[in-house]
Write a structure and sequence with these properties.
five-stranded parallel beta sheet, 493 residues, FAD/NAD(P)-binding domain, 3 domains, seven-stranded mixed beta sheet, binds flavin-adenine dinucleotide, alpha/beta, Alpha-Beta Plaits
Length: 493
């Protein structure tokens, strides 16, 4: 079969490799001049910055893609195990180091009585993990599929938000924060609204470790592209798909190809979209073919948060900052209210810093430093004029960091730039500039998420963070496995 894929994020590349390994002709069309989407990168003045993802979990899901071609990952990318995952700075005195090895010591530091709570939390999240991990391979296309799962969900108390769930195990407020913040950065989850099933993330890290790719996550993307091209796959860059061509005779319309840059038409037996689903339905598919995904329906969904990200190349090193730091300068609950409910840009923030040079990485020139600073902000529903506000917001953040954690920061900046929700929208075609598309809630999970197979159009499939099972590299790669199986089933003669 002739399969075309729109977009070269982790999802697009993973499904491309799976389809290629089955002997199909596979071509990827990517809007940007480099691959990777949210896992792409920037090179500036001798510094290399990953766009966003920095932590790799369940690395065997990536290894599976290499096994399809009887290869292993060596020669493509190299992973380093992280001994310490995060350091959380509640203020200069209260610092929680999140590492598997020392977790009990750290909990004890905050509240001795919470040790037993942690042990129980571990046991229950392990149960959640075992139940939910099997969801990752299942397409959930029918209402029947959710009915079958419902009892399990009820047993796991999936209706409970993460914060409420975690609070049952920990009395100390800092510990409650420490065990609820992570899903925000990996899944876009507001812990006060997202289901506690997303605590399976903690077990994902525990079971298979948390890893960093030497040279950055971009090296994995480059490795996947290399594997794809070595085996005959083709990727075209600067090739924005501007239309999904459909034909309707009887029954559902059928995808028959795509249009590139409003010019060239490419025929295909199957079209797989790695592009943002809401953007794709609204902009690439004529209204007449969209019975379910009308503009009205797409607008009615609740979209997740975005990010303001500052990338810094620095003349000196800040060795007091670890590889992954989360810095709190805000009341926790209020912060999420502002970002997710009131669509208000928080002027006191919760910042996540990724500093790869902390583990001796060579992504900066010798003796120099490099990091990104990420502030969760509302999506574009906030009506913020980022072209004006961006510079001011950057200065607010840098001023705070300079005063509290990194002295003389601004005078040591050698290179800098920032990304706003407008960039997520314009460069990555993210609907409302949302970094994770739909808000991560129970009612936008499994069956309730847009399906991996279009409900409106035959021969059209979806892979990546917007479809089931959701955002985060392991989930996105799992969506590729699902799509590959669906195509195999649908086209079996
Ligand atoms: C701030 C942040 C931090 C994160 N950190 C982590 C982490 O540490 N670990 C982790 O596991 N996950 C992390 N994630 C999640 C993870 O990065 C994403 O879920 C994943 O990279 C998304 O991959 P994807 O394949 O769904 O799509 P994307 O990466 O969004 O790729 C989609 C591709 O489609 C292209 N495209 C769009 N429209 C068109 C068009 N019309 N024509 C052609 N091409 C098009 C885009 O240019 C892009 O290349 C993080 C996410 C964010 C936002």
């Amino acid at each position: 079969m002739n399969i075309v894929i729109i977009g070269s994020g982790f999802g697009g590349l993973a499904v491309a490799l799976r389809c290629l390994s089955k002997g199909h002709k596979v071509t990827i069309f990517e809007k940007l001049k480099i691959p990777g989407g949210k896992a792409s990168w920037f090179e500036k003045d001798g510094y290399i910055f990953d766009f966003v993802p920095s932590i790799i979990t369940a690395p065997w899901l990536l290894e599976e893609l290499f096994k399809l071609f009887n290869k292993n990952t060596s020669g493509y990318y190299e992973l380093v195990k992280l001994e310490q995952l995060f350091k959380l700075y509640f203020n200069n005195r209260n610092i929680f180091t999140y590492s598997e090895e020392n977790i009990l010591r750290e909990i004890k530091k905050f509240n001795l009585n919470d040790i037993n709570g942690y042990k129980l939390f571990n046991k229950i999240t392990d149960r959640i993990f075992l139940e939910t991990f099997s969801f990752l391979d299942n397409p959930f296309l029918t209402p029947g599929s959710i009915l079958k799962t419902l009892p399990k969900y009820l047993k796991l108390k999936a209706y409970k938000p993460i914060y409420k769930f975690v609070s049952e195990f920990f009395q100390n407020e800092y510990l409650r924060i420490a065990f609820t913040i992570q899903p925000l950065y990996l899944l876009g989850a507001n812990p006060f609204r997202a289901s506690c099933i997303y605590t399976f993330l903690y077990q994902l890290e525990k079971k298979w470790g948390a890893w960093y790719a030497k040279g950055g996550t971009n090296t994995i993307i480059k490795g996947l592209c290399k594997l794809f091209q070595e085996n005959g796959g083709k990727i075209y860059y600067n090739s924005e798909v501007t239309k999904i061509l459909c034909k309707k005779k009887k029954g559902k319309p059928k995808a028959i190809g795509i249009k590139i840059n409003n010019k060239e038409k490419i025929e295909a037996d199957v079209v797989i979209c790695n592009s943002d689903i809401s953007y794709t339905y609204r902009n690439l598919i004529n209204k007449e073919y969209r019975k379910k995904y009308s503009d009205l329906k797409i607008n009615s969904f609740k979209y997740g948060n975005s990010f303001f990200i500052i990338y810094l190349g620095l003349k000196r090193k800040y060795d007091n900052i670890p590889q992954h730091a989360i810095i709190f300068n805000r009341l926790y609950h209020q912060f999420f209210e502002d970002v997710f409910i009131h669509y208000k840009v928080p002027e006191e923030f919760i910042l996540y810093i990724h500093r790869p040079t902390a583990i001796g990485e060579t992504v900066a020139p010798p003796n120099k430093d490099c990091m990104y600073i990420l502030s969760p902000v509302p999506n574009l529903k906030s009506q913020t004029d980022w072209s004006n506000f961006g510079e001011r917001y950057k200065n607010l953040i840098l001023e705070f960091l300079e005063y509290s954690y990194m002295p003389e920061l601004r005078e040591n900046i050698e290179t800098e730039f920032f990304i706003t929700p407008e960039d997520f929208k314009d460069k990555h075609n993210s609907f409302l500039g949302s970094a994770f598309l739909y808000e991560c809630t129970l009612f936008k999970s499994i069956y309730f998420r847009p399906h991996n197979k279009s409900e409106d159009i035959e021969n059209l499939y979806f892979v990546g963070a917007g479809t089931h099972p959701g955002a985060g590299i392991p989930m996105v790669i799992s969506s590729a496995k699902i799509v590959d199986r669906l195509i195999e089933k649908d086209f079996k003669k």
